[in-house]
Structure formats: structure tokens, C-alpha cells
Amino acid sequence: MALDFTAIDFETANSSSASACAVGLARVRGGEVVATAGWLIRPPAGHDQFFDLNVQIHGIRPADVRDAPTWSDQLGDLAAFAGADVLVAHNAGFDMAVLRRACEATGEVVPPYRYLCSLQLARRAYDLPSYRLPSVAAAAGFTGFAHHDASADALACAHIVIDAARRCGADDLDALSRTHGVHVRVLDVSEAVREPVFAA
User: Considering the domain boundaries, does residue 189 fall inside one?
Assistant: First the structure.
């Protein structure tokens, strides 16, 4: 087995989990980042209003996504990049809710991804005053990235998992999750979706 996974990060236009306006992805093979991708998304109709708070956080404005692919247009590209990988996200409840709710809003089939939360992992693997993404990434030796840029956040998340595995000598995600008592979960489309807080 090898430390293989895809880190993912979404940004949203407003407080609705369905309002995906950007995605970032980082593919890891054998404990090394081998590919990255990211793009803007035109949020689904009815979820496409941009709140000032969100714009202040990530800097994405309505004009930026006017010609961007819709959720339905880009879902295939996301699935092609991730393949059958376990998805890893920092505060994965947020990102998995975006994936589910955007699919629900557009009538797309929700892919039954397996996923791991790097925030939960970080709380077991590091002793830090803060477990926000920049703080944990710094502890993992990954600094100077643009927080709330989806591509940069996905890359930071990937480096956290790689570093946590290195620290405990885990060769794959299963060993890493067992060592720290966290779970690789399955995205359950039957679960009630709660509107989560902003990503860490």
C-alpha cells in the first residue's frame, strides 16, 4: 500500500453549502504531491448570490464566475481528477456538505466518495494552540500560502497529511487513521445536511 489520496477544498459564494464558487485539488501518490488543479465554478441557480462576508474571505466576486463552468459542467472534471481516491479536506464536514448540496441543487448524482478529515487528524497528530489550516500547515512545514485560495488550501491540506504520516511512520491512509484513531468515512447521501460553518 502507499500513501495515495486527493486533497480537496471548496470556497462558497454564501452561507449555503450548495453555493460552490471554487474548487482546489491536490493528488498525492506515495506520499508526494504529483498533480494539482483548481478552477472557478458558477454556483447553482438559487444559490448564486455572493455575500460580502464570503467575498471578503476568498476574494471571488460574481463577475469572476460569470463565464465559469457550472457545477454540472465541472463535476466530471472533479471526478476525473480524484478518481477512486479517498478525499481529504481540512474540516471535511464543510467540503463534503458542499459536494452533496451542490449535487442536490443541480440534480446530479452524489459520488459516494470515502473521505478523511485532516482537521480531526491534526488534533491527534499535533499539539498546537490553533488547528486552523495555516497553523497546522506551518507545523507540517508548509508556509506562505494564500489561505482561502482553494488550490492553495488543498495543497496545504495534502502536506499536513503527508507530514502526519511521516511523523508516525504510516505507509497509507488506513495505517495513519488507525494510529491516530480517526476514521475514513463514506459520503452518505442519505444523511441530513446541516449548514456547516466556514472552512477552517
Answer: no
- Let me know if residue 196 belongs to a domain: no
Tell me if 154 is assigned to some domain: yes
Whether 198 contacts 91, CB under 8 Å: no
**Any domain includes 83:** yes
Q: What is the CATH classification number for the domain harbouring 39?
A: 3.30.420.10
Four-point Cα dihedral 50, 56, 57, 60, nearest 10: 50
The pTM (predicted TM-score) of the whole model is: 0.94
Q: What is the pLDDT of residues 128-177, one digit of tens each?
A: 999 999 999 999 999 999 999 999 999 999 999 999 999 999 999 999 99
- Set of cell numbers at residue 191: 444523511
DSSP letters spanning 25-88: EEEEETTEEEEEEEEE-BPPTTS-PPPHHHHHHH---HHHHTTSPBHHHHHHHHHHHHTTPPEE
Number of domains in the chain: 1
Q: Which residues constitute the domain of residue 27?
A: 5-183
Q: What is the pLDDT of residues 87-129, one digit of tens each?
A: 999 999 999 999 999 999 999 999 899 999 999 999 999 999 9
